[in-house]
Please model this.
Amino acid sequence: MVWFGGGSLGYVLDRMKAKTWAIPRYIETVFACVVIGACVFTVVSTMLSSPRRQMGQKATNQNPLKQERQSFLASWLSRTIYDKSKNMNEESPVVELYPDHAKEWFARKTVSRYVSKIPHPNLTEPIITNKFICNSSEVDILIYFHSLWSHFEHRRVLRESWANKNVFSDIRVRTIFILGKPPKKEDQLKINNENLHTQDIVQGNFDDTQRNLSLKSIQAMQWINDNCIQAKYIVKADDDMFVNIFALTEYLLPQIYRKEKAIMCSLKENRTSVIVRKPESKWYVPEYIFKGESHYPTFCSGYTVLFSSDLVPELYKFSFNAPYFSVDDAYLFGMVLGQVKNVHYEDITNLLSLNLKAGLDEYSGSGPLVHVGILAWDDGGIQKLWQATLSKMTEWTRKHSNVAMVQEVMRKAGGHDLV
Model:
């Protein structure tokens, strides 16, 4: 053992002097120098290692999404160990790898709606509004879908799975579907009947066509701005996407809850996506839009997007002056968002997948979950992924999910209680 400090060193020297063999004084001096040298070496080493630790911490902080992706593995490992201990009838305590700060995630400051003095140049009064969905109550997460009018089955599946407003027990979720007008009056009656039972449809007064997709984007921003600005976070998805709402909340919200004007998406960097100028293409963009440019500026692919609600009034405001074109992702999350100052982008491309087979293999396998969003309509993909999600619930999810609702959905699907 090595002692540091004058008292301990003096104690050692006194004991040595008391020995029957006399130690020459110069040996005492040498020994003291050795000890002092060790002290100096320790202090210097500590000072030199401190910047390295700081640099390492800085590098870690620069890639938080990589940490959160790895946390899928960590939570899976923790759950596996816990399950094994239960099988062995051991009462081993579960170590909480990630402290639960859910209340902090939703303690965001109030956002003020944008109030325009003029009507929106591209919108008229919606056919169906359902203004009461949020009322004046608190809303933590608002989910909205771009949905084709005829996708009745898509909407039913989403309501009964991950987009159910009661999926959490203590996190308040609301869901809306943005539609346009169908071509026939009898089709409108079908929509009216659906809305009579679900009361979650917002139908714009425009034809539900490819050319009007960006009108759905503006309609969504107008509705949220006017009727649900109290929501803390907005999730936008296409109606053929599966989103692991538990993983999104547990792993992605912690990355942006302290940030203003934050958006997480599959980010298309500046000048990496070609602008289609052929009029026959459904992605056609006229020459006067991005005039003289062959590639888009930075924008978010819109199949799954998570953003803070303080972006809503900004997006709605700047849509008044942005020239309209029909490529909705590049319009709302590109041209319009590009006018908003100090936007914080997070690229989550690696957490999203357009490969259903790979997604099903991942969710039904014994390994960790990596993807939060998966294109999943074909072959009952959304239902299969939802059921697999319920069998891989983390301790955090078990704590915050609506267990009764989850079990009821599983029973309807012919499964078993997995919670």
